[in-house]
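Re: [help] complex structure
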Amino acid sequence: MKSKKTVVMWVVTLLYSLAIFLPYLVPAFNELNPKLFGMPFTVWWSWLAVALYCVCLFIWSRNGFFTSYDNDGEEDTEEKKE
Amino acid sequence: MDTFFVVSLIVVLAYTAFALYVGLGKAYDRKAVSSARGFFIGNGTGFFVLFMTTVASFFSTWIFTGAPGMFFRNGVSWVVSMTWQVIPVLFIGLMGPKYFRLGKTYNYLSPAEMLGHYYKSPKLQTSYGFFGVIFAVPLLLAQTSGCGLALYALFGGKFPMWACTAYCALFVGIYVYFGGFKSQAWIDTLQGLLFTIILWVSVILLVYNKTVGGFRNMWQMAENLNDNCLYYVTKLHNATGGWTWKMYLSFYISQGVGCFFTPYIAHRMYAAKNSHIPRKMAGLLAPYYCFLFMTTAVIFGVLGHVYGVQVANADNILVTLTKTYAPLWSIVVVIGVLAAGMSTISSILVSATAMISVDFVKRVNPNLSDQGLRNVGRYSIIVVVLLAVASGFVTIPGVAQLANMSANGFLVASLPVLGMFFWKRSTPAAAFWGFTIGEIITGYFMIRGINPFGFTGGMIGFLVEIILFVAISLCTKPLDEGYRKQYFSCLERTKDKDCV
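Output below.
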């Protein structure tokens, strides 16, 4: 389950990275005319990609995708230097 | 006497007094600052303060000056600068809890100490600490200089530049010297909230007025200018600036990865009260960075075109526009610049002096007492503050340039850490040589301003580091598997069950 979550995280990050590069990879993005809320399509596209990734980060933080280490009953100390 | 000058002086003094009241009054913890750990890391920082101090440390005067200037000069394609802000947040979620637990278990006060211990390599600790200071301190000096310049401009030159810079340096130095990390974090919280509000009030004042009349009009007016500011740099559009895909890729990797490994961000992971906090921060930091901060820079950059700001004033778009259209508000904007700059200055000051104390002085004198270590930190603060005061007499390269150099330097710092957690085969020799040579190459290209093959110099340094790191690891003996298991046993033992 843990490795599946890790794979999902990195796949989503990769897809996000590709999405934000698309305006460079597909120059036609510059030519698209739909003005959403008055802004150019490329700006809207980037903001949408960032917003979706922010949602993913929020979901991951709430669903154990990031490991935390607080399951200690006692104060945890070790010798620092061997 | 000039009314604007008097009001400016009152506002600056009020801001100074209130910040010191918060930091050295409410937040001062005598018990915390009596120990080295308490002084450098605090006694466990809760979510809200750690969140805000990370926010405030991450963004400096750049968000007020450099970022809008970059949008103005490079066109709207620079909106991609928002896109890499999420990557260090991802690392906070992935690595932050690990840093916290290892820091608590082994009493680490700096990332270099962690690496030196794990790899059993004192020279790696020294090298890592050395380059950490080398890349961070010039940025601190540039920020101080930038804050001084903002004050100098606000007072219309009535105070000399060196005095304005000295004020900024001494103000920060006082609360860091006496209050350590906790005071610094509380003042960061105040400053972070302050400059967030100031940015958005500035947006509203400059967008919703008779000249522009709203966001739709702003975009339409920018399009009507027909100066290519709304296009990406592609073969179809030779848009403004040199913001090619190679530059974007370089920044995406260097800033995206490098920013987590800056000492003052990694330092904050040690400072958390528990490891849930970095996890929770990872869920909420990204929208703050991207939409509460970077969006304002996009808007100011576009407004620069709409209002016809001259290119020479690109870094001062916000101050220039507010002085023209909302003069009294421009005083508050300068307070925002100070808040943004000083929060980063103080964070760098705490982490740099921690590195100097732990990674250099303590290495030379291992018998240094805990209070002695704390005192070395304080003496280091005095030295760095004096350097910052002296910076008021010289010209230091732009904040954006030094911030980029720092990020590239800290990108190189990422590999030994990633090897430590994710590649059993990584060896002490590979970590040391790869890191050190990578930093030298990065520093050379960045200082000379050379961008080989259209990529930033830091990318070349990182590439060389990767090659050396892998090659030397494969040729040298790895750390004993039993040792690695024992070292990371604290993570296995304390892993929260809902994450397994």
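Residues 235-240 of chain B have pLDDT under 50 and may be disordered.
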